[in-house]
Structures are given as structure tokens and as C-alpha cells.
Amino acid sequence: MRKVYIDHSSASPVDARVLEAMMPYFDMDVGNPSSLHSAGRKAKRELEAARGSVAKLIGAPSSNSIIFTSCATESNNLALRGAALRYKDRGNHIITTSIEHMSVMNTLKDLQRSGFEVTYIPVDKDGLVDAERIKKAITDKTILISVIYANGEIGTVQPIREIGAIASDKKILFHVDGTAAVGKVPVKVEEEHIDLLTISSNDMFGPKGVAALYIKQGVRLMPFMLGGGQEFGIRSGSENIPGIVGMGKAAEIARDNMVEEGARLIKMRDRLIDNILKLEYTHLTGHRTKRLPNNASFRFSFIEGESIILQLNDMGITASTGSACSSKTLEPSHVLIATGLRHEEAHGSLLLTLGRSNSEEDVEYVIKSVPEIVTRLRALSPLYPTK
Amino acid sequence: MAEQFEYSEKVMDHFRNPRNVGQIKDASGTGRVGNPVCGDLMEIQIKVENNILKDVKFKTFGCGSAIATSSMITEMAIGKTLEEALKITRGDVAAELDGLPAIKMHCSNLAADALHAAIKDYIAKKEERAKIEAEKYDFDVIVVGGGPGGLTTGILCAYKGLKTAIFEASNWGGLLSWLCPTKMMENFPGLSEKTTCKDLVETWMSEAKKLNVKLLNERVTEISKDRKVIAKSGEYRSKIIVLATGSSPATAGVKGEDMFSKDDRGVYYYVTNPEKFTGKRVLIVGGGSSAVDAALSIIDTADLITIAHRHNELRAVGQKIERLLASDKIKILYDTELVEITGADKVEKAIMRDLKEDETIQQVVDSVILAVGMTPNTEIFKTLGIEMNEKGYIKTDKTQKTNIDGIYAVGDIASDLALVVIAVAHGATVAHNAYIELRMPYWR
């Protein structure tokens, strides 16, 4: 049976070149970058090279604006909490959207408990946020705007440049969660007026356990990981050198291949979308064109996502759903709900996220398998209108 | 024990190959639980026959465990009685599937609820149907005829809780009341020593009244195939009709019979009052037990008794025949047939024929008792299309059902033996089967 991994937004394999670059730093070159010996200096050089590579990927003018963290969730926590607490004297109002990642949602919820006010800007049915609505929500207390670059569940890419211009004009800090976007679409922090950018490693085929946060020169954050003063005192803790080297390599590959790989993914993505939408009672989630190159997400009426995933799994296809039945909280995806879907509609969602290893043959197999499964499950469903 | 977080092989098997998917045409009950908003919606349909789940089918919107539990419960429930199926719990379903992940135990384990809902739906519908049916009918059972068969059928139906009415055109108790009220119930074990026919009828009437049997002393003029009974007081609908019209003494069809059989002019068919025959010369025609009984009943009052019998042997209980033969008042003419009864205003003479000798015999008599047998009172049912034999007796199966749905027959009209014990047994048989037909109990 063919095996197709098409769940890259959940987890991605580490690129072989990345893995190769990392290997020496587990057992051979194990110096601490703070040490003065040659091993330490080598580690320091690799650390700074990785910083430079990540900075280059996002068009940051200085590599010193990149700090490494342990995961994108940490980067989001640090950006939001660090900025809010650092600038709380200027105001207590934060603006965000209703389709942020849980690491943003829950951090802001926690800040609300300590006196901050958060405005959640809704999105339209395609998951797009309206920059004008953000502008209108700004008050003289607003200190921070946080918008996801592109949501991994529905793939919709937000008008970041437009929002960035508004924030810049109003001199409000602008944080962007670039987890799903960086490495897949060209993100340029200066042109898009981004002050804080969360960057994931695994989402661009780097290792897990490492991520980064871009902090524009001049922006100060209140650190919450205190210790030896690593990462410019903003994020103490011994540097994860193998991980950071891997992330640096991943950023380099992403930058080099972005145009070519992006075009290849878009072609496969559109083929998935065009073919799967031929099924009756089937809808695309997210925006048709303003979407990540690797994201094809759907919802099927009358059936439930976990069942779809288990059936696909039996056919060798690994994918995701936003159904409540597959979540820990038994709540459907808040992102799908935010796009105006009813609960029962959100339950029937299927998320296909392509990656570097996927081929046209994989796409062919998925296009053949999905309708079979949907038809089989609908035959079981009391909601499906029988003819 | 570590918390279960994966699906067992059994769950995956039922998820991959769900059993009994679909809907049942003419389902006995449907249960729908859950809500698509919560992620699970189950619909279970059942087919119930004789209180047993003959078939169970499901359709489910939901996750793997929702589908697997639905599939599993159909397998668990088929073949079970409703009571057994109602005892199946969510826990039983999960256990049968080798457990479910903890998070699924509550949200996606609704199959037992759906099955119970389907059974409750079936029960509610059944009760509703029974109510509507009950309102359409005046009675569960109408018995036509108030003789031994009719009265006991009515009593036993009412005893089982069926709403019962009995119609009787003349005397309650039938032949027992007008043919032989003072006779002991001699061939009814248990009653022969102390109970007369009249006593027995009185007891039955008292029992019927206590059980609230509606007793209507009027003639039924018509019975329709759709079980409508028309009488003088109105039309009555019944789910079941029991024919119990009994039999009457047969006429002999001889010359003069019609002339003297009315207004006490000397021709009788049975003895109601032995005193009436005091000092009379009586001819009894017939050789069966009714002829013998008639002779014995007047043995002390009549002056002379002649029995004319077509055959050369009497057909009655041995000891009765011995009593007859021992009396010097009695003369038996074997192989003799009555030909004519003559007289001016009252009976004066009987003309008979000796079949063996081919001679005519003339005998002076005051009374003639024609005890030539019984005829079933079934003439009126011919237009109804009830199947009968050539002698006019109604054909029934062993549950006393006739060929027409919902119509039963009991007593003399449905038996070779015109006996009270047989009629009473018919009553018991009909009450049992009528109850099954109307109440559809699980034990049938």
C-alpha cells in the first residue's frame, strides 16, 4: 500500500541536509558558545551563522535581531508577554484576531486576567481579517497588535503589510506569528513593518525543539527565562547548538528553494482542491488564492473528521482534522468556528498539508482515496440525504 | 492501569467493517440520540417480533468509537428480548469492544442510549396503536348466544380482562334452561351430585355479572365480516366475535307434526314438566340418549310409554337402558318409524311402520315426544360465508377459529358432541386465544 504523509502542519520530517549539518554537534563539536576555548568559539561561530541565516530568510537587517527559543509557542509567549509587560506603562490594550494559534490565544487570555484588555477582530468566511477593522479598534491605550501571518489550519494568508503599515503609523508594536508561513512564502520584516516575528524550525523542515523570535532593533522585551544571560539576556539557558545549527541550515534551504518549491506545491495544492471539490456537499475552507502553497483544507457535510482520518490512515494516508472528536477539549477548531462554520460543519473538516517529500503520485492517490472514504462514511450517516 | 488512549483492535474492526448499517423498512421503533453539534448522532432502528429484536440497524454520524459502538450494539441486541436489550449498558458496549479511550467513554458511547430510545419508541407506538384500536371498538369480544358455550366463553374472556358482551335472544343458559332445567349435571364431573342445570346457569350468570360482562337479552339480526354486530338496540363493533348459537331439537318431518306441535296439543320435542304427562299414553320417537332421558323423566307420571326406534338397539348409557327395560310401563318398538300423527283437536293416534315386517301399526296415544336429535342453529351464518359441514356444523381449527378472521365458534355448533363440558372447554380455548390475538403478550 502506498504511504502518503500529508500532515506537514502537524509535524514535518527533518530535511536530510539539515540532519547532516546537525550531526557533529551532538557528539563531536560539543563546545558551549560562552566558553573561550576553540570548541566554544566554534560553537559561537555556528550560533551566529545560524542567526544570520534566519535573519537573511526574513530580510532582517541585523542577525542580532534573532533570538533562539525552544519552540514557536515559547516565541509567541515571549513576544506577547515580554512586550505587554515591558510597555504596560504606555497602555493595556492589545488587538488580535479570532484565528490565532492557541499559544497566542491562551497567553492573551492570561494577560487579560492580569489587567490587559484584548480585542479579538473577527475574520470573514475565508478566514481573512480586515485591516480596516484593526485600525478602527485602535485606542490610545493600544500597545500591541498580534496577527498570524497565515493560519496552518485553513491556509489563509493575512494582509500583513497593510496591518503593519497601520501599526507603524500609530507607533504600535506589531507581532506576527509566522509559524506556518516563514520558509513557505516570502516574509520580509522591514517591508511588512513587523516588530516581532515568531519563526518555527520544524515547519521549514528543521528539527523540533528549536524556534526563533525576530525582535526589531530597539524593541525591548521583559524576559521570563532568567539565568546566564544567553541570547542577549532575553532568553537565558544554554543554547541548543545542534538544533540551532539545524534551524540555520533549514532557513538556508528554504530561502534557496522558496520560489521553485512554492510553485511545485501550489500546482499540487490546486490539483487537490480542484479534484476534491468535485465531490458533492464539499467545500474549501480558507481563501481560494490567498493561501499557503502547501495547504488544501476542506469540509464534507454529513460526516465526521476523526472517522475520515482513521479511514485515510487505513489507506496509508496521514492527514488531520479540526473535528472536536479528535481534540483534547472535545471542542471543534476555533479557527473553523471563527470563519462562521457551525459546529457540525467544523466536525467534517479535513486538512491536507503538503511537504517537500510529496509527489504528484501522492496527490493522485489522495484524489482517488478521499472520495471513496467520504462516500463510505456518508452511507453510514443518518444526516446524508438518501435518494 | 494506564489510561486507554488508543482504539482497540475490536473497535477498529467494527469501525472498518460496520455491521448492520442502514435502515429498516417498516421499523417497529426508531431511536435517535446525540446531536451533530456535539459531533455524534446515532440513529438505531429495530424490528420487533414476538417481543424479540429480529433486526437492528444503525446509521451514525460521528467518530470511530461512535461508529464502532453503534455497530457493536446491533450485534449485541439482535435476538434478545426487549427486556434483555434494555439491560445493555454503555459500559457493556465498551467492555464488549475491549474498552474505549477515556475521553470517548461519555461523548461517543451513546449506542446503548440509542437502542433504548428505539425500544421505548416501539413501546410508546404500540401503546398508542392499542389505544386507537381500543377506541374504534365497543368490545374486545362479543359472544352471540347465551348457552353453556356462550356464557362460559364470555366469563373466561372477561376473567382475562377483555371487554366482553354476550347476546342471547331468549333464555340465558340455552338448552339447559328450557330443555332440562331440573336435570342433574350428571355427565359433568364434579357437578353430578348436587347441581342441576338451572343451578349451573344461575352460577354462570352471577359470575358473568361480577366480571362486568355486558349481558344483552336481545336477538342479533346480522353479523358482518368486519365484525359488526347488529341488534335491536344498535350496532356494536368488536375485535372478536364468538358464535355460540347452540342447537335445537330436530323436527321429525312427519305428517301432522306441525299441526300438533304448538299450543300444547300433544306433540313435544322434550320434557319440560313431567307432571304434564300424568296418566297419559305417550309415544317417544327416537333411540338416542335424549329419547331415553325423556322416557325416564316421565316414568313415574305417564301411564304407558312406547318408544319407537328406527334401529334395533338403543344408543344411551347402559344403566339408563337397564332402568328402562326394568319398567313394565315401557314398550319398545324396534325397527319402527313414525309415519303420521292424527287427531281432531289434539293428538289421538300415531301411525307407524314396522320396517322389518313391512306392516303398518296404529296406536292410540295422548302425547308424542319427538326426540329425534339436534340441529345446529347455524342457518343464519350461511350468508356470512362461514364454512360448515354438510350437516350445518361450523368448521373450526383447534383454537376454535372459523375460516373468517376474528370469528370463533363454540359449543354444539362446532362440536360432534353436544356436551356442556365440551362447550366449557371451548370457552376456555377461545378466551386464551382471543387474549393472545388482542393483547399480543410476549409469552405467546
What is the gist of this entry?
Chain A is α/β, with parallel strands linked by helices.
Give the topology.
The complex is a heterodimer of chains A (387) and B (444).
Chain A: E1 4-5, H1 16-22, H2 24-27, H3 38-57, E2 66-69, H4 72-86, E3 93-97, H5 102-113, E4 117-121, H6 131-137, E5 142-148, H7 160-169, E6 173-177, E7 196-200, E8 211-215, H8 241-276, E9 282-284, E10 295-300, H9 305-314, E11 317-318, H10 334-338, H11 343-347, E12 349-353, H12 360-380
Helix pairs in contact in A: 1-8, 3-8, 4-5, 6-7, 8-12, 9-12
Chain B: H1 9-16, E1 29-35, E2 40-49, E3 52-61, H2 64-77, H3 82-86, H4 90-96, H5 104-107, H6 111-136, E4 139-144, H7 148-159, E5 164-167, H8 175-178, H9 197-210, E6 214-216, E7 220-223, E8 228-231, E9 234-243, E10 247-249, H10 257-260, E11 267-268, E12 281-285, H11 289-297, E13 304-308, H12 318-326, E14 330-333, E15 336-342, E16 349-354, E17 359-364, E18 367-370, E19 374-376, E20 407-409, H13 420-439
Parallel strand pairs in B: 4-5, 4-9, 5-6, 9-20, 11-18, 12-13, 12-18, 13-14
Antiparallel strand pairs in B: 1-2, 2-3, 7-8, 8-9, 10-19, 15-16, 16-17
Can you describe what's shown?
The complex is a heterodimer of chains A (387) and B (444). Chain A is built from 12 helices and 12 strands. By secondary structure, chain A is α/β, with parallel strands linked by helices. Chain A has 2 domains: 4-11 and 258-380, Aspartate Aminotransferase, domain 1; 16-254, Type I PLP-dependent aspartate aminotransferase-like (Major domain) (Aspartate Aminotransferase, domain 2), CATH 3.40.640. Chain A has a 7-stranded mixed sheet, sandwiched between helices. With 444 residues, chain B is an alpha/beta fold. Chain B has 3 domains: 9-133, Sufe protein. Chain: A (Alpha-Beta Complex), CATH 3.90.1010.10; 138-249 and 375-439, FAD/NAD(P)-binding domain, CATH 3.50.50.60; 257-372, FAD/NAD(P)-binding domain (3-Layer(bba) Sandwich), CATH 3.50.50. Chain B contains 13 helices and 20 strands. In chain B, strands 4, 5, 6, 7, 8, 9 and 20 form a 7-stranded mixed sheet that branches. In chain B, a hairpin with a 4-residue loop joins strand 16 and strand 17. The mean pLDDT of chain B is 90. The chains are: A alpha/beta (387), B alpha/beta (444). The A-B interface holds A 302-307, 310-311, 314, 323-326, 328, 330, 332, 342-344, 347, 379-383 and B 7, 12, 15-16, 18, 21, 32, 36-43, 59-64, 66-67, 103, 107-108.
